[in-house]
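ingest -> validate -> predict -> emit
validate: passed (alphabet ok, no gaps, 85 aa)
predict: started
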Amino acid sequence: MYAITEPDPIAQDQIAALPLDAVRYLAEVFALLETAPWAGKPSNPAKPEGNLRIMPFGTGGLVTYLVLEQQREVYIVRVQWLSIA
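emit:
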């Protein structure tokens, strides 16, 4: 099991600004990251073993996170949400 550490301050602001339905989807991603953080795609396809990963969520979200394998931790770097009006 991996621990999700306190997110980056910018990611904290991004999470706080999410609409309620997006927060539900994000909670599902966090639950997955606790057990399978390597399930996300590498942020750089040229480095498939890289520890900076991305994972989509909901209908317009993307989480960028860092897997700290030795510490068994996940550090949330950014949370983006595209609102389609």
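The domain at 3-81 is CATH 3.30.2310.20 (YaeB-like fold).
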